[in-house]
Write a structure and sequence with these properties.
CATH class of the largest domain: Alpha Beta
Radius of gyration: 21 Å
Number of strands: 15
Strand order of the largest sheet: 3-8-7-6-4-5
Distance between the termini: 28 Å
Shape: globular
Largest sheet: 6 strands, mixed
Low-confidence stretches: none
Mean pLDDT: 96
CATH superfamily of the largest domain: AICAR transformylase, duplication domain
Helix content: 25-40%
Number of helices: 14
Structural class: alpha/beta
CATH architecture of the largest domain: 3-Layer(aba) Sandwich
Order of helices and strands: EEEHEEHHEHEHEEEHEEHHHHHHEHEHE
Amino acid sequence: MKEFALKYGCNPNQTPAKIFMANGSDLPVEILNGRPGYINFLDAFNAWQLVKEIKESTGKVAATSFKHVSPTSAAIGKKLPDDLKKSCFVEDIEGLDDSPLACAYARARGTDRMSSFGDFIALSDECDEVTAKIIAREVSDGIIAPAYSPKALEILKGKRKGGYNIVKIDPSYVPEPIERKQVFGITFEQGRNNFKIDKALLSNIVTANKNLPEEKVTDLIIALITLKYTQSNSVCFAVDGQAIGVGAGQQSRIHCTRLAAQKADLWHLRRHQKVLSLQFAEGVGRPEKNNIIDLYLSDNPEEVTGEGVWRQNFAVRPAPFTKEEKEEYLAGITGVSLGSDAFFPFADNIERAHMSGVAYVAEPGGSVRDDLIIEAADRHNMVMCFTGMRLFHH
């Protein structure tokens, strides 16, 4: 296939639209079902690069959930503990523990379920039946993977009344080293960002604490590769083989850190027994449960637990989850990793990260205030690596 005609570009008024190879060669993808759009392909190609690189760097299968050209999360195929299965709404999926790929997607989708609503999915390996069963019941725009089992393909083709977007990519495809795009009729040209992110990148530990366990190396690698395909400025929190909070596209780095930390905190709070024991009203769907949980954990829980509304949401009115209870629970969280796509200009980022359990940090370094950043990390006994490499993505 030399080119693929799109219904329209980013918006309906932007026509005509298509994807094609500038050198006239065949596209490295095959459309197995549906008709992906302009933004779908932007998500698909960025997402595929992310999972491909995580697989290459960690040796583990990987999955990501993308929305509007940034990942909501990315994860490797580690089994989920029971509380996380329930938090991710996959406790009833048969064969989950036997499918590393399904575990990876369950983690990625379950991290920030509100942001993942209508996501585009990328898988590093062949989509199997168990993974397809999870995807089948989620609201999603499409998927890209190097292959699909016959049963998985059958399941996925049944989504969205038969219109679900299924893209198969050639895993051996290597893009040209120079990339171009146009803005305002002007062509930009640059070398592709082929920078390799692996364990060696984390060798320059600048803090007094230099104890960096292997599992934390993996978390930092996942955070940094996630950032490589996240709209900048960006910060990513990671733990247990997955990104748990992504702050994307903020002009101020502290706002990135606050946003990512807030998402990470919500990920932890969703595993609290008060949330796991919520009894929803009959007929409340999965997307609605996400919204209800988000409001229950917010500063205005009465929007779903108030006297006049709780019966619409719950079979049993839930006990309040007080600010003090949430703070106490989060205060016990530790061992979280954090990556930043550029240096921290002020120590307030470290202080906010510490409040969300961060103990391991990877950032480029190079700020005139690096000494103050290191001092703040040392104050909290963190391990911090200077990578020497910025990871802006636009």
